[in-house]
Amino acid sequence: MKTKMTAAAKRRLVKSVLLHAGLLLFAAGCVYPLLRILSVSLRPGDKLVSTDLSLIPAGATLLSYSKLLGDTMFLRWLWNSLLITLATSFIGVSLASTAAYAFSRFRFPGKKAGMILLLSSQMIPAGMLILPLFLMIMKLKLMNTYLGMIIAYSVSSLPFSIWILKGYYDTIPRSLEEAALVDGTSQVGAFWRIILPLSTPALSIAFLFNFTTAWNEYLVARVVLFSSKQYTWTLGLFELQGQYITQWGMFAAGSMLVTIPVLCVFLYSSKWLISGLTLGSVKG
Amino acid sequence: MNVLTSVAEVSWFILLVAAGVAALVGYLYSHFKFYARSWFFPVVLAVFPALALAVSGGLLGGYTLKLWLYFAVAEAVIAAFFRYAVKGRHTVPYLLLAPAFAGLALLLVYPFVFEIYLSFHDLKLTTIMMWKNTGELPFVGLDQFVKVFTTSPLSETTFWELLLRTLVWTFSNVFFHVLGGFILALMLNNQIRFKGLYRTLLVIPWAMPQVVAVLAMRGEFHFTNGFVNIAITKLIDKLPFLAALGLAPVQWLSDYPLLTCTLINIWLGIPFMMVVILGGLQSISSSYYDAADIDGASYFQKLRFITLPLVRPVMMPAVTLGTVWTFNNINVIYLVTGQAGGTEQADILVSALYKAAFTYNRYSYSAAFALVVFAMLFFFSVFYLKSFDAAKDER
């Protein structure tokens, strides 16, 4: 059976083919570097430095992974990062959850000034505060320790966390708390028993944001930590990538091990993160 | 064993923070609650300065009368403030806010003030031991600020070169972020199959840990083993006439470091803009386009008169944020060029600032430098937000 396409249908087909081609091209550009790391991490030791572009190399092995886990302190670096990151996220989210509640539910003098202070703190160049924090940590004799890192990180995501949580609390109807207040709970009790349990999605997003920020941080760690036992994984990978081309395989293996969980978490949480980022704009 | 001690160390610290928060809240609560009692002044003056002296004495090792006097005066002022000005109003919100703002004051405001102090003094490698032991530094007035404009923060590049480079870097990055993000968002905002899959793949550069992404991309610009040069070589093999036109593998990292950093950062930054703009596009009601179709508007007319104006309010804050982020981006440049023997041809203001402080140990100089950079950014933001507000009023 011969069907004649109308001009409009033809145009639609051409458009869709072009769209798919364009999107595929861009998507390839986004994914290819990641696939290249994967490919390098699977290369056998004698072919690490090759100009081969195939994705699954000939004679693929997991040797780089076992070398990375056996010969370097990679697991230790991951552990250091994990401890520092969990502690900072915990402190950050706890402080943010109550502060955001105050901003969401109460009217008090200085409310607007407080919100502006939070927003404008985002304008301070990150690089600018590293120096005074470094000197403070030195003075407290906390160089090269977990505690120094936790102190340096703990408030860096606080303004953003407060901002996200306030936005979420604003969407919870006040009538819920009012009912609890009538039943004789205190304001703090209502926050603890009603608002916090209802806000688990927003709390976990704030936690994830704190977590990824601290997890991926490099510049502060560079100046505070100096013995390789205390390194976070970012410092460790930089060392592996920097020094010898022979460690390229281990760098790639480490990158894969760190990237995959982070990617999963990000893709899972991106929807909420983005709504947090654009909240101010949509409302403004 | 090692694992246990590290967990114990961190848990102990968290408990310490919790104790600090509890102490702060308890202290404020007592002032909010009992401000009107007749015994308020004598009790707080007896209790809190003594407690503060005990804690600070335990930390610093010295219980002097002078210190107690300071605490007592401070406590008297605070108590009077609570009694005659605050009068127990707004107890709950202030108590809820206190821990977070105490944290911000200690780790954001205090460092900022300390930076100002540093910029008027002279802290460098030769005076740092003295500062560590005595806490005192020579006062030099505005010298550091003069030096910012007259000497190089690194070994050769001057402030003005860095400023120019920063402007070029910021402008070209943000321009391509917005352009690329806009094109991709327009493409995604169609009825096509696998939309979710494309969207996921396209945000990967943003989702990857930045350190991994930058280091991996840096590897791709390597002279012999990087993808870019291999691709160029293969292209020349296939199409020899390109070589005659002057196409050849390039020493990206040593000859064109700034271009390399810019390419890497454009790659990193497009997904954020894409996602924000896509959100804006999806919030535009289709009735506008239907109406335009009836009037026979062309694709570009719809883009110009419907899409752009309606996406603008969503895009402007993202562009502002993106500009500030790009201006402040140390990560990309430091990770690409920061190693021993790295070039300074790619440094912008903030990365030069970082290197001046931590590679060349010129602390006070870089504090002054940081304040100059901050002032520039501050005026940009104020000016920019003002003009944005004005534009909003027009609508």
The strand count of chain B comes to 0
Q: Average the pLDDT over all residues of chain A and give the rounded result.
A: 85
Under CATH, the topology of the largest domain in chain B is which?
MetI-like fold
Largest interface: A-B, 102 and 102 residues
Number of helical segments with 4 or more residues of chain A: 13
Main beta sheet of chain B: strand number and arrangement?
none
Report the helical percentage of chain B: over 70%
Structural class of chain A: mainly alpha
Order of helices and strands of chain B: HHHHHHHHHHHHHHHHHHH
> How many H/I helical runs of chain B?
19
Instruction: Report the order of strands and helices of chain A.
Output: HHHHHHHHHHHHH
* Terminal-residue CA separation of chain B: 65 Å
User: Which CATH architecture of chain A would you pick?
Assistant: Orthogonal Bundle
Q: For this structure, what is the CATH class of chain A?
A: Mainly Alpha
Report the strand count of chain A: 0
Radius of gyration of chain B (Å)? 29 Å
Task: Please describe what this structure looks like.
The complex is a heterodimer of chains A (284) and B (395). By secondary structure, chain A is mainly α. Chain A has one domain: MetI-like (MetI-like fold, Orthogonal Bundle), CATH 1.10.3720. Chain A contains 13 helices and no strands. In chain A, helix 2 packs across helix 13 and helix 3 crosses helix 10. The longest helix of chain A has 36 residues. Chain A is flat. The C terminus of chain A is likely disordered. Chain B is an all-alpha fold and 395 residues long. Chain B has 2 domains: 88 residues, no CATH class; 211 residues, MetI-like fold. Chain B contains 19 helices and no strands. Chain B starts with a helix and ends with a helix. In chain B, 33% of the residues are buried. The mean pLDDT of chain B is 88. At the A-B interface, helix 1, helix 3, helix 4, helix 5 and helix 6 of A face helix 1, helix 4, helix 7, helix 8 and helix 9 of B.
